[in-house]
Design brief:
The protein is α+β, with helices and mostly antiparallel strands and 224 residues long. It folds into two domains: 3-74, Glutaredoxin (3-Layer(aba) Sandwich), CATH 3.40.30; 84-223, Up-down Bundle (Glutathione S-transferase Yfyf (Class Pi), Chain A, domain 2), CATH 1.20.1050. It has ten helices and four strands; from the N terminus they run E-H-E-H-E-E-H-H-H-H-H-H-H-H. The chain has helices spanning 12-23, 40-45, 64-74, 84-108, 113-133, 148-165, 176-187, 189-192, 199-208, 213-223, and strands spanning 3-7, 28-32, 53-56, 59-62. It has a four-stranded mixed β-sheet, covered by helices on one side. A hairpin with a 2-residue loop joins strand 3 and strand 4 (59-62). Helix 1 (12-23) packs parallel to helix 3 (64-74) and helix 4 runs parallel beside helix 6 (148-165). The radius of gyration is 18 Å and the shape is globular. The relative contact order is 0.14. The model has no long low-confidence stretch (mean pLDDT 97). It binds glutathione. Glutathione binds next to helix 1 and helix 3.
């Protein structure tokens, strides 16, 4: 089965698929697109004009959750829980992960200090909800086994690694379970390999170009 993951260097949804592929030791080629100037071949295979797209032989699959579910059925080992109710629960929290990504976009695009703070508060309360459902059997979302829902949250935490390196405060100080989970995900080989070595520089540049409150704060700190 020949697999090609159509990617963008910063896309957290692409990372989900890349992590699931790595967890399954699947051989995959990556092809990168410029989302600011989408080529015709990409628009022809991506109905929503978004990354990721997984080409299975010549068949394009779009939507990261669908891609991850397909891979889980097609390529062993299974990452989703076997239990039906647990699997449904994991899928629900994968959806929650997408709403966290939307709030992160609202955070780095916030036009002013008040909006930035509102998005920060929103992020904190979303992670507090996660803190309440994370298991005491650590370190992953479902306990000891790495599951697809973990692949959804690893790229979420990667944003905060860069935000903190750029001087933003740690949101998770009062969330011990989230902290353990975040640290375990950051160490996982599949997670580390999902982005290029220049990810941090690329994301920093992207954040600086937003024209947002966060862009101004980062620029001011770097100018110091
Ligand atoms: N629901 C989609 C979201 C994918 C998505 O938003 N991708 C972004 C990059 S991270 C994209 O391609 N944006 C380009 C655009 O919307 O024009 C998924 O889960 O695959």
């Amino acid at each position: 089965m020949h697999l090609t993951l159509i990617s963008h260097h910063l896309c957290p949804y692409v990372q989900r698929a890349a992590i699931v592929l790595a967890e399954k030791n699947a051989v995959v080629s990556r092809r990168y697109v410029d989302l600011a100037d989408k080529p015709d071949w990409f628009l022809a295979i991506s109905p929503l004009g978004k990354t990721p797209v997984l080409l299975v032989q010549d068949h394009p699959l779009f939507e990261s959750a669908v891609i991850c579910e397909y891979l889980d059925e097609a390529v062993p080992p299974r990452l989703h829980p076997q239990d039906t109710l647990q699997r449904a629960r994991h899928r629900a929290w994968m959806e929650f992960g997408s709403t966290v990504l939307n709030t992160i976009a609202g955070f780095y695009n916030a036009p002013d200090a008040a909006t930035l703070q509102a998005r920060r508060d929103e992020l904190q309360s979303k992670f507090m909800q996660l803190e309440k459902v994370l298991p005491t059997t650590r370190p992953y979302f479902g306990g000891e086994r790495f599951c697809i829902v973990d692949a959804v949250f690893a790229p979420v935490f990667r944003y905060f690694d860069v935000f903190e390196q750029l001087g933003e405060p740690d949101l998770f100080t009062a969330m011990p379970r989230v902290r353990v989970w975040r640290a375990a995900l950051a160490q996982r080989q599949s997670v580390r390999q999902a982005v290029g070595i220049d990810y941090r520089e690329r994301l920093t540049q992207f954040l600086l170009e937003r024209g947002s409150e966060l862009s101004r704060r980062i620029a001011a700190r770097r100018g110091r």
